[in-house]
Structure formats: C-alpha cells, structure tokens
Amino acid sequence: MKKCSLLFIAILLFCLGVYVVIGNTIKFQKGFIMASASSSETPSPTENELGDKASIKESLSSETQALYSETPKIGENIGELYIPKLDSALPIIHGTSEDELEKGVGHFAGSVLPGHDDNSVLAGHRDTVFRKLGEVGVNDELIVKTSAGTFTYKVRKVRIVDSDDRTVIVSMPKATLTVSTCYPFTFIGPAPQRYVLVADLVSVE
User: Fold this and answer.
1) Residue 24, class by beta-carbon neighbours within 10 Å (0-12 exposed, 13-18 middle, 19+ buried)?
2) How far apart are CA 142 and CA 153, in angstroms?
3) Catalytic residue among 94, 107, 116, 182
4) What is the pLDDT of residues 149-167, one digit of tens each?
5) 4 part of the active site
C-alpha cells in the first residue's frame, strides 16, 4: 500500500514537471517572437504581406519627422489610448515585447506612430488592459493622445484572425489604427486567435 502511494506521488510529480516545462517553453517562444518583432523598425513577414520594406521604412522616417520631434525608444510611454465605450484610459508603450505589454498597451515598433497616414498597430493582453475589448465594435471610437495631438478613430471593422495572421500589420493607404488582443477572451492557455479592431482616423486636435 505504501509502495503504491509512493508510486502515485512520483507519477504525479513527473506529470507536473512535464506540464511546467511545456508551459515555460511556450511562454519563452511567444516572448522571443514578440521581442524580435518589437526590436526592429520594420516587421519581419514576407514582402507580399507588407509591400516593399524600403518604402515602408522611408515612410516611417518622413512621417515621424512630420508630427513627432523624434522617434521614441523601446519601452517609452508615447501617449494614452482612451476607449469611450469602456470609459478606459490606457498608457501606450513603444514596443510589444512582454516588458512593454506588462506596462500597458504596446505600440508595434514597425508601424507608424498614431496620427500618421498608414497603419498604426497597438496590442495588449486580454487578461489585463484589454479585458473588455470584446465590448467594443463597429462605429465605436478609439482616441489616442500623444505629444503630436489628439487623434480620434472610428472602428470600421472587427476581425477574428489566427494568431499567426500577419495581415494585421499590413500597410494601409490612409491613417488607420489597428488594435489587437488574444481571442477567445475566456480561453485558458495561449489563445489560438486574435480579436482585431480596424479604425479610421476621423478627427485631429
């Protein structure tokens, strides 16, 4: 009887160890991918997905000079995202690695800064800053306040995409704000999809 109990405990500890190792491996891979993306000025998908990388980088540089005195550093607070539907004001941090996402909403460093023509991409955790983002939908406003001004966007489209779908960060022909978080909101573990709001710039102050 005692041997059976010891065997059961040994098996339980082994299973727990395997679970912890697998869980940490998944978190490490996720963090590595996000950190790699945020440390670069341009995203890493194929050119078919994002268009010509050289032109995107040139656009980023010229547009930054137009509204902002300098390009923010990774980890720097660049403004605030206010969501009227939720009466929620959230800090925007430049970068989307785990360090930045722990502080607030992350701004994808390979996208333009808010207010510029093209696609400004924000991301956040569904269990922290974007816990109620699923309540926000078409025609709701997203207001971004930065040193360059106050930019009001109106949600044009809600998308549910796979977690590896890179079309979320594609270039846009006009000033666009794309806000993304993991989906489903109640999913336990690494979520397989993303909840995405695509919003157009409607006013500037």
Assistant:
1) exposed
2) 5
3) 182
4) 999 999 999 999 998 888 9
5) no
